[in-house]
Amino acid sequence: MSGSKAKRMTSPNGAKFKTMRRVKLKKASEMIQDKIKKIYKAKVARIEKVSSNSHLIEIDLPFEIDIKAGQFISIYCKGLTLRRPFSVYSHFGNKIGILFKERGAGTKYIKSLKPNDIIDIIGPLGNGFNIKNKKALLVGAGIGAAPMAFLKSELDKKGIENLFVCGFLNKNEIPDCINIDKIYTDDGSYGEEGSVLNYSDELINTYKPEIIYTCGPYIVLKTIAETAQQYGLEVQVAMEKIMACGIGVCRGCVIDIKKNGEIVNATVCKDGPVFLGSEVVWQ
Ligand SMILES: Cc1cc2nc3c(=O)[nH]c(=O)nc-3n(C[C@H](O)[C@H](O)[C@H](O)COP(=O)(O)OP(=O)(O)OC[C@H]3O[C@@H](n4cnc5c(N)ncnc54)[C@H](O)[C@@H]3O)c2cc1C
Ligand code: FES
């Protein structure tokens, strides 16, 4: 044994360093084990077009898993380095549904899948909505309707009174698989005319919710959060950010939030995607 090695092994600092390294290695290994537990080879059960620009894909997992509304899965898309995140739209036993809008290479790949194809997913990821036993207004916009539909089914199961409203650009974009209580279209081609945001005050004043949950484009989340705050209502917002790792390691999806009077960083993938509207630092 060389002198320097013997010294390292016997010095108290060396022992402390080795213990710290062992703890770090254990933590890293636990994180990897955790991640491995969440990786599934799943089978496509069904895929169909449900609106002019969105598809529903149903996936059979090898076994049942627990999923909360607002959580998401990350799908490996052949040929692409980064997985793509999607909110869970439905969940029955070992079957989960994803409602997705075609955007680029990843969603084009998912759209090309056929029943019985095997796909590689990680999930469930993120925190999900914190369901309260309070009369709820659910506001979705565009493809943000997907996690809200799952949340509505969870609220219904628990017998919590709720109203699910959603805005779309036009009637062709409304997925025909979702039950929505009230629909708004920007061009008036279905339901009430105009953005769902134009109706937020009216909805709050007439329906009188005790809590609001929302998912959609950033401007919708920000406006709903600000409106809810004016009425002193709790609002939970499901945020979206382009993601890389999806498990809180790369810090690529960080946003600013307010915690105990300070502005701190939070990852949308692990600390979120659901945050209190009052804690997000809106841009
Ligand atoms: C937590 C979470 C949940 C999501 N849930 C859904 C869902 O239920 N249904 C659904 O259709 N989409 C959802 N998305 C968005 C989805 O991840 C992106 O549409 C998808 O990654 C695009 O991949 P792509 O390869 O097809 O497009 P890309 O080629 O990667 O991108 C095409 C265009 O879309 C933009 N884009 C890509 N990802 C995002 C993103 N995350 N947010 C905003 N713009 C983006 C890009 O900037 C680019 O302009 C979710 C995103 C997050 C973070
Ligand atoms: S995507 Fe890596 S930390 Fe969120």
Describe the structure.
- The chain has 283 residues and is of the alpha/beta class.
- It contains six helices and 16 strands.
- It has three domains: 3-36; 38-125, Beta Barrel (Elongation Factor Tu (Ef-tu), domain 3), CATH 2.40.30; 129-216, Nucleotide-binding domain of ferredoxin-NADP reductase (FNR) module (Rossmann fold), CATH 3.40.50.80.
- The chain has helices spanning 3-10, 12-37, 105-111, 145-157, 200-207, 218-230; strands at residues 39-51, 54-60, 72-75, 84-87, 90-92, 95-101, 118-125, 136-141, 162-168, 182-185, 192-193, 211-215, 234-238, 254-259, 262-267, 274-276.
- The strands form three sheets. Strands 4-3-7-1-2-6-5 form a seven-stranded antiparallel β-sheet. Strands 11-10-9-8-12-13-16 form a seven-stranded mixed β-sheet, sandwiched between helices. Strands 14-15 form a two-stranded antiparallel sheet.
- Strand 12 (211-215), helix 6 and strand 13 form a beta-alpha-beta unit.
- Helix 1 packs across helix 2.
- The N and C termini lie far apart (60 Å).
- Flavin-adenine dinucleotide binds next to strand 4, strand 6 and helix 3.
Brief overview:
The chain is of the alpha/beta class and 283 residues long.
Helix/strand-derived category reads: alpha/beta
Beta-strand content bin: 25-35%
pLDDT < 50 runs, ≥5 residues: 1-11
Count of spatially separate domains: 3
Q: How large, in whole angstroms, is the Cα Rg? A: 22 Å
**Major β-sheet, in short?**
7 strands, antiparallel
Q: Could you say what the CATH architecture of the largest domain is? A: Beta Barrel
Q: What is the global morphology?
A: globular
The total of beta strands comes to: 16
Small-molecule components bound? flavin-adenine dinucleotide, FE2/S2 (inorganic) cluster
Element order: H for helix, E for strand? HHEEEEEEHEEHEEEHEHEEEE
Share in helix = 25-40%
N-to-C span:
60 Å
Mean pLDDT: 90
Tally of alpha and pi helices: 6
